[in-house]
TrEMBL record:
InterPro entries per record: APOBEC/CMP_deaminase_Zn-bd, CMP_dCMP_dom, Cyt/Deoxycyt_deaminase, Cyt_deam_tetra, Cytidine_deaminase-like
Required cofactor names: Zn(2+)
Species for this entry: Geomobilimonas luticola
CDD domains: cytidine_deaminase (cd01283)
Job of this protein: This enzyme scavenges exogenous and endogenous cytidine and 2'-deoxycytidine for UMP synthesis.
Gene designation per UniProt: cdd
Similarity remark: Belongs to the cytidine and deoxycytidylate deaminase family.
Catalyses which reaction(s): 2'-deoxycytidine + H2O + H(+) = 2'-deoxyuridine + NH4(+); cytidine + H2O + H(+) = uridine + NH4(+)
Protein name: Cytidine deaminase
Length: 143
């Protein structure tokens, strides 16, 4: 489990922080399955559903680079295909094979679709950041 200092932007309780660090450990496990032969940059995501289930995903690259799927979207789309809907998720943790990582803009927009109150956990600037989607995507676009 991560030993980095925690940037708790949402006033999460000790119990919640423990739960989110476990989710981050799941994201690290998920990144081992990354198919990333072009960038060699592994990313894993773990989504915590409100029913307690955890759905994992990794990045999946393609020779036609633009067809690459990010880890966050793999996990959320996988969950959707299993019957989960926007509002069904509490949190998403994302981990990469680099010290500094934060979810790309496209994935922030996709996470937003599933709930701007979702807790988002990632490691950046030597810290484990715990924030909400709305906190990392201000002025978020919605229909
Ligand atoms: N990647 C993700 O999986 N999530 C992100 O939020 C940013 C980027 C992947 C896509 C590509 O396979 C690799 O990281 C390098 O961009």
């Amino acid at each position: 489990m991560s030993t980095k200092s925690i940037k708790n932007c949402i006033d999460a309780s000790t119990e919640q922080v423990e739960c989110y660090l476990k989710l981050l450990a799941d994201a690290h496990k998920a990144k081992d399955n990354a198919y990333c032969r072009y960038s060699n940059f592994q990313v894993g995501a773990a989504v915590l559903a409100k029913d307690g289930n955890i759905i994992k995903g990794c990045n999946v690259e393609n020779a036609s680079y633009g067809l690459t799927m990010c880890a966050e979207r793999t996990a959320l789309f996988k969950a959707t295909s299993e019957g989960y809907k926007p509002g069904d998720f509490e949190a998403i943790a994302i981990a990469a094979s680099a010290d500094d990582f934060s979810p790309c803009g496209a994935c922030r927009q996709v996470i937003n679709e599933f709930g701007d109150d979702m807790v988002v956990i990632f490691e950046f600037g030597g810290e484990t950041v715990i924030n909400t989607l709305a906190g990392i995507l201000p002025y978020n676009f919605k229909l």
